[in-house]
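Page 42, continued from yesterday. The earlier attempt failed because a stray header line got pasted into the input along with the sequence. Redoing it now with the clean sequence only.
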Amino acid sequence: MTEAEPMIQAIDLCKHYGSFAAVDHLSFSIKRGEVVAFLGPNGAGKSTTMKVLTGYLAPTSGQARLCGLDVVSDRVKAAAKLGYLPENGPLYPEMTARELLSFFGEARGLTGGAFQERLDYVTGECDLGELLDKTIGKCSKGQKQRVGMAQVLLHDPEVLILDEPTTGLDPNQIRHVRELVKKLGETRTILLSTHLFQEVDAMAGRVMLVNEGKLTFDGTPDEFKAKGSGQMDQAFHALTAHNQE
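This time it went through. Structure tokens are written below.
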């Protein structure tokens, strides 16, 4: 793929539950090297969109593509390009972090020296040194989040979709994740969902906002702030308040 080709693409994407449209004719594209903050009020269709983009949910109509691959018809190939961290992502509590990463490494085809090289990388980047041989069920929420992030990065994916990646982390760990996302975003494509406006300023170069299943804003953080007299929270309120009434 060339640098200009979309790495994440939604094409007239719809997801219905009965008569309710959780995602309503949504279209956008994201190129390599972009870190995009995905905003929206609860129930706006944000998490559903992310699940459709990852292939976890099938769209009712339209198309989701990762690295040019249709996530429905080319699901296995598309999944190989993707690292997905859902909010409160499922981990196996009876495993240690090392066992979990070994399990996912094998599932991703990583063995021997290739696996050890990636294990060393994610151990350093996600600060897992003291956690590798700790049972996940005994880890704190923040520690589990770090293990989840390591699992996401293990196979060196080209696209990262992160749902609330700093949930449960302390301020030092949040700072580390921000720096990591910015560094990863130089060569990868990252779509991250957050409710924390300071995360947008710290990590993202672009903001997309969905409301009632539709894309209602797509621009830079500064352009987003301009919708609310220079304040992100005011811009968010101005663009979404009507469906809270």
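Notes: The mean pLDDT is 91.
Reminder to self: strip header lines before submitting.
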